[in-house]
Amino acid sequence: MSTEEIAALQAELEAQLASQRATIDELWLVVSAINILGLQLGFAMLETGVARAKNTKSILLKNLADMSLGVFVWLVIGFGLYVGDGRFVSGAPHDGFMLLNDEDYALFAQSYGFAITGTTIMSGAVLSRMKFEWYILISCIFVGLVYPVSAHWAWAENGFLSVDFDYKDYAGSGVVHMIGGVYGLVGAWVCGPRVGRFVQQGFDTKSVPRPLPGHSSTLQVMGVFLLTVSWMFFNAGSSGGTNPEQMRSASRALAASMIALSTSCGVVIIIMYIKDRTHHLAEACNAVLAGLVAITGPCGHVDPWGAAVIGAGAGVVYLCVSHVMLHRLHIDDPVDAFAVHGACGAFGVIMLGILDYQDGLVYAGSLDLLYGQFVGFICLFMWALITALILFVSLNRIFGISLDEDDQLLGLDVKYHEGYAYPEFSAQDVMEYNRTRDAATRKLRFGNKNRAHGSESWAASEASIHSAGNDLSFRSASSEGSETGWKKGRAKRNNSEDVITPPAPQRSSTGDDDQYV
């Protein structure tokens, strides 16, 4: 063979190898994109388990709407904003809008999974008290504008954070989870606490949180397991390809994710046992997610010991932030969306600047990467906070996005979705419960003939009413059986996990025997 023939054959072989490598890279993106969608099922199960049974349909439909409507929004505008060439805001070329370039199909599918993950984080923070239509509107704005801009800054080829500050965020501790957590924080604050979440302590003005346990620990734990599996594709799939260096990075990300979630869970279990001398399932579940969130950004850039440090720190950050939000700020976040995703996402972003195995402060002795990470944290956090405040506050002032007390007590399934997910519940049961509660309240207030003679003070009577109202449960008429006595019924209802605070009695002018709702 001549020299020219050998050169031509070599060029042809190289072209075939490049084509095969590109095909394998695209297959890697496709596989990870498919499995990332499992996060939606995991979040749906987790949120449903944390919520009351009367809100089951609402939670499931919100997650379904996030996934289905999110595709359309991401196709029309979100993906184009993400992949354009602008510095701060995406510019030309415009073939990302409406997905005009067929070479971007795999990237479109994978990045779509990242986009809807952020908005699903917000879903859990506002569950059971935000009107469905306004949640959908904010979700679409998040997927179409808020997330793609932040992703463009950090991950696009010309994004200002990645170019000017060498910002690193392997799979999105800041870009995905922190901004989703900030939206959850603002949403929970604007919508206010669930009915009965905070009660007055004695006769002073101090409010204290009261447990409102979810209706299914089984769904909650199964959701966490499914999230963990899908999260591995979320992190490892962010390697972007399958060449030896990229696959080593994916392997590092996978190992670091496993180490971080285990150390975070272990630390939280130990701390909670020291504090309460018992083992808390809900906190352990959130600790797993906290470790995964914190390691999502650094997972491809840290050694195993660094992953363990980040996981342990994430568990502590989660517990501290959750306590401050609930007990100090009185913000009701049912799934601890901000404590898990917002705070731990920010923690992961900063720790990457310290523990990066190449440029981190510990290894390189330089503050350059830490500075870039801090700038990235500030920019992403403020972008999310400002846009969230504009959306939630303005919509709430103009239209009112939170449900009133009666709708919360009846549940979103009755308000929006033609009845409860479980056939044992019905609106008639709730109405009958309200009537029974009001009758008991009137009995305590007006039925004691000896109160005026000092046998029972008015303050003691009011305390009894308050205690009775807090202890009443949502139960179907069939489950109550023949227990019509107040003391007997109250004793049984106190054992129910589904405890709610009833609304104030609304008395008809026609008499005490009328129906109350």
From TrEMBL:
The keyword Ligase does not apply. Residues 472-517 are annotated as: Disordered. Residues 28-422 form the Ammonium transporter AmtB-like domain. PROSITE patterns: AMMONIUM_TRANSP. It is a multi-pass membrane protein. It is found in: Membrane. Its main location: membrane. The chain crosses the membrane at residues 27-46, 67-85, 105-127, 134-155, 175-196, 254-274, 305-326, 338-357, 369-393. Keywords: Ammonia transport, Membrane, Transmembrane, Transmembrane helix, Transport. GO terms for biological process: ammonium homeostasis. InterPro entries: Ammonium/urea_transptr, Ammonium_transpt_CS, NH4_transpt_AmtB-like_dom. One of its GO terms (molecular function) is ammonium channel activity. Residues 473-482 have a biased composition (Polar residues). Pfam families: Ammonium_transp. GO terms for cellular component: plasma membrane. Belongs to the ammonia transporter channel (TC 1.A.11.2) family. This is Ammonium transporter. It comes from Hondaea fermentalgiana.
